[in-house]
Amino acid sequence: MIKAFTIVIQAGAILLLVLVQGCTTVTIDQSRLVQGEGSELAAGKSIVVVGRRSGSEYETEPDLVSCIGKVLNKGQSQVRVIPEDVFVDKLYPWFEPRTAPVKVADLFRLLEYEELSQAIADFDMQYLIWVDGSTQTISKSGQITCALGVTGISCFGFGTWDKRAEYEATIWDYSKRKMVGKINGTADGTSYMPAIVIPIPIIAPVQDDVCKAIGLQLRSFFKVDAEQPPAQNKTM
Amino acid sequence: MKDEKRYITNKTTLGTLMVTLVLLLSGCATKVEVSGNFPTPVFHQMPLTVGVYYPPTFSQYTYHETNENRSDRTFGIGSAQVKLFQTILPSIFKSVVPMTSVNTPNLEQPVDLVLTMTVDDFQYTVPGDTRIDMYEVWIKYNMQLFDPQGQLIADWILTAYGKSPTAMLKSEGAAINEAMIVALRDAGAGFAMSFDKVPEIRQWLQHRANSQI
After folding, report:
1. What residues does each domain of chain B span?
2. Which of A65, A98, A171, B189 could be a cystine partner for A181, CB 3.0 to 4.6 Å?
3. Is B154 on the interface with A (CB under 8 A)?
């Protein structure tokens, strides 16, 4: 009887886990720094998305950078996105945390090195996007206690935590040799973990949501899709 | 018969508990043999033939945690360091000759310079040590450059730093390995960028260029 009850509880928990997600509020803010000029992606050209890793107290997550690349690459009109690790490895040691160009002018100063200039030319890159930021846990509360009993480990309690994902994507136009735009994305969300026999995490996917929002806004910036989503402030 | 069965059950339970306890206790010790790949640098090769000697203190360097207030950790960095320099040096210099000591007279291939290095200091932090959720690694190298006659030309410090954020389902060993690889890449970048900017080396290169005119 107890075993059957535990199985029902566990099945219900797994179903809840699949169906329920915590809520996230995403804010996207775009600034186009070069007015009146087209920022369309030319046919056959590629985009590189790279994480800034010079912050001392945080690290721009490689997962987030690759997620933005995937969103850029989705949809009807696919964009050629060079994976971060391929780009950084091919241009080693010029895009390491201590050597990466901070300003557009720094990048073009580096191009005086013939070998580097040729290696970058091989990518046929039109835009270089720098992503800077991180996802942090802002606050935590609650308590979950687990104990080993006759039927196995059982837990009881409730936990909750707030997370904030805050990123800035800076767009450099390689062909025009200037910074052409910035997109700031922020996502706030609260995750919950009620535990009745087993803990049931209801996660607010703040990083995933901010990634999708920035990726879609970038597609809009480059006018990749016919219908472009406007800059938005929405709850997902 | 029933008593015997109960005895076996108790023995099995005790055994399971012991194994669990051993596994939990062994979980406190971290042993990492750093492994990873390093990219070939895009660099303008210097027209130099450089002999390289990796002393055992460098090629077999292992860090053992000696602080009793910290968890038992062992990091084997030696082979990864050698792999880094074996990858980057041939892109920086025209030719690289492995050597068995700093002073190896009568080499089959004459060299312009002999490079050697040691680890001066190694430090790390784990998320519990600081207020940030990050594994961090600092390595301080002492680099030395000799002429073929064994005369010291330059002696300089090369520092390297690497960090890796914590992530769900990422073990401490994997996170430390990641931070180490970032630090070693940083060491490679620092070496490539700063080699000809070390004053003594710059002076030696200038002198060599003048004598070849």
Report:
1. 29-212
2. A171
3. no
Query: Residue A191's pLDDT band (boundaries 50, 70, 90)?
Result: very high
pLDDT band at A6 (very low <50, low <70, confident <90, very high): low
CB neighbours (10 Å) of residue B18? 10
**Residues contacting residue B26 through CB under 8 Å, at least 6 positions apart:** none
Question: Which residues of B fall within a CB distance of 8 Å from A97?
Answer: 182, 186
**Run of H or E including A87:** helix A84-90
Give B-chain residues touching A115 at CB under 8 angstroms.
42-44
> From the list B44, B134, B190, which residue is nearest A59 (CB)?
B134
Does pLDDT of A126 surpass 80?
yes
User: What part of A 76-115 touches B (C-beta under 8 Å)?
Assistant: 89-94, 96-99, 113-115
Q: Which of A56, A86, A92, A138 to mutate to test the interface with B (most CBs of B within 10 A)?
A: A92
In order of A94, A200, B184, B185, B190, the CA distances from B160 in angstroms are 15, 42, 7, 8, 8
CATH of B29-212, one of 3.40.50.980, 3.40.50.10610, 3.40.47.10, 3.40.250.10: 3.40.50.10610
Contact A84, A130 (CB under 8 A): no
Q: Which of B42, B188, B189 sits opposite A119 (nearest CB)?
A: B42
Higher per-residue pLDDT: B130 or B27: B130
Q: Worst-scoring range by mean pLDDT, A69-73, A161-165, B10-14, B151-155?
A: B10-14
Q: Is B196 an interface residue toward A (CB < 8 Å)?
A: no
Q: In the Cβ-directed half-sphere of A5, how many Cα atoms lie within 13 Å?
A: 6
The complex's ipTM? 0.82
- CB contacts < 8 A, A to B, total 52
DSSP letter string, chain B:
-HHHHHHHHHHHHHHHHHHHHHHHHHTT-EEEE-----PPP----EEEEEEEE--HHHHT-EEE---TTS--EEEE-HHHHHHHHHHHHHHHEEEEEE-SSS---S-SS--SEEEEEEEEEEEEE-TTTSSSSEEEEEEEEEEEEE-TTS-EEEEEEEEEEEEEE--TT--HHHHHHHHHHHHHHHHHHHHHHHGGGSHHHHHHHHHHHHHH-
The CATH number of the domain covering residues in A2-235: 3.40.50
Which is more confidently placed, A129 or A40?
A129
Q: Are the C-beta atoms of B192 and B92 separated by less than 8 Å?
A: yes
Q: Judge contact between A211 and A64, C-beta under 8 A.
A: yes
Retrieve residue A89's tokens.
């490895």
